[in-house]
Fold this protein.
Amino acid sequence: MKYNSSGYVIRISENALIQMCLNGLEAYIVTHKENNEDKSKLETFGLLWGHESTLTNQKTLYSIELLSIDTSAVRKSNSCEPNDLALELKRDIMTSFWPHYDFLGDFHTHPYNNYRYVRNNKLYLYSEQDRSSIEDFTSSLKL
Ligand SMILES: [Zn+2]
């Protein structure tokens, strides 16, 4: 098993992976009508639910068991703005009815035209926008 430099590993269940692929592909391929405009190649934003465990070697395992798509997120081809109320609502519901699932984080897709472009430009890595968003979030936790 490979650990990142921070000493954790992420496991994604097959169900969560299938949901991620299906929703990401729908947002990419199927035309969405919005304000009389046809839109496709849209980003998809979702929340990740599962468990955090400490392994016998003291490394941390994040097991993503399921995900939920934020249908209220404002989706574009190069960005996705979640609505904070969606997270608040879903955390409340999950805590009330499925407390064995913890909120682990979020994900979003990056729609590009083909995989060669993605591979050649290493676009599978975090974008600059992603990095600054993560840094802002991390800074807000330290307050
Ligand atoms: Zn991104």
About this structure: Residues 108, 110, 127, 130 surround zinc ion (CB under 6 Å). The radius of gyration is 16 Å.
